[in-house]
Automatic annotation (TrEMBL):
One of its GO terms (biological process) is methylation. This is SAM-dependent methyltransferase. Pfam families: Methyltransf_11 (PF08241). PANTHER family: METHYLTRANSF_11 DOMAIN-CONTAINING PROTEIN, METHYLTRANSFERASE TYPE 11 DOMAIN-CONTAINING PROTEIN.
Length: 266
């Protein structure tokens, strides 16, 4: 029997209990992602931008630094939204505490829309239809993910913790045995089905994240499938023990970063 799935509404409130730990423990996005936004998606000075599910701002700060202004960040969790505001005291940034479905954004007003490791929490078809309405002709949409895991490489820590972590899945798991952010065929097909984009493209990179036992526990504490468990503390203690006793305090997680971009047709 496949694992149960966290409801979208529950998942959207799963990350705000400790925003500072989330911001510190989650890895940054590779530089090539933002380089692509600059070279392909016209990110630069004065790019009118919206960001879906901005969280604590792991991508927001980079967007602001590269010229996204004004930038409207949409974040449904008020705790994450407050952290985002306080960490980015930039007059170009506006934070809307709202689900994207309900966000008040002007149609045709944006040069760029972005979502970083958050788009799987939305209904893809409905969200893409709204995104297309918000972008001006020639505007760009970009969704990217840092995905934990890569089946093409050995992953001993994942195998060692599989029984401990059994439980609910979340939408990032995907529907076809492929993580949502890595299901190239499905994501590109959804973009094309809108009929709103004249260019769609994707790129990926693989890399490694090296963690000690404390950083391992801190990272897993940010996973919705861990943070919402009633036995969260014992699971984190178990992860810490495995990292220390079976891996000598050095855990290597396989990472894949994926990026999907699409240009709004005239």
């Amino acid at each position: 029997m496949p694992p149960s799935r966290l409801a979208r509404e529950a998942g959207r409130q799963a990350f705000g209990a400790d925003p500072a730990n989330y911001h510190d423990a989650r890895p940054d996005y590779p530089d090539w992602v933002f380089g692509t936004l600059r070279s392909r998606c016209a990110l630069g000075a004065g790019t009118t931008t919206f960001e879906i599910g901005a969280g604590t701002g792991k991508a927001t700060r980079r967007l602001l630094d590269l010229g996204a202004r004004p930038l409207v960040a949409v974040e449904p969790d008020p705790r994450l939204a407050e952290f985002l505001r306080m960490a980015n005291l930039d007059p170009a940034l506006t934070v809307q505490v709202s689900a994207f479905e309900d966000a008040a954004l002007d149609a045709g007003a944006f040069d760029l829309g972005v979502s970083a490791t958050a788009f799987h929490w939305l209904d893809e078809e409905a969200a893409l239809a709204k995104i297309a309405r918000l972008l001006c002709p020639g505007g760009w949409w970009a969704a990217f993910w840092n995905v934990f895991g890569d089946d093409s490489r050995p992953d001993p820590f994942h195998l060692a913790t599989r029984d401990l972590l059994q439980g609910s899945a979340n939408p990032s798991t995907g529907e076809r045995g492929i993580p949502f952010g890595l299901d190239r065929e499905a994501r590109l097909a959804a973009l094309k089905r809108t009929g709103a984009f004249d260019i769609v493209d994707t790129a990926t990179s693989v890399w490694s994240l090296v963690l000690d036992e404390d950083r391992t526990a801190a990272l897993y504490a940010t996973y919705s499938t861990v943070s919402l468990r009633p036995d969260r503390d014992s699971v984190l203690a178990g992860l810490r023990r495995i990292a220390r006793d079976e891996f000598g305090g050095r855990v290597v997680r396989n990472m894949t970063t994926s990026l999907y971009i699409a240009r709004r047709a005239a």
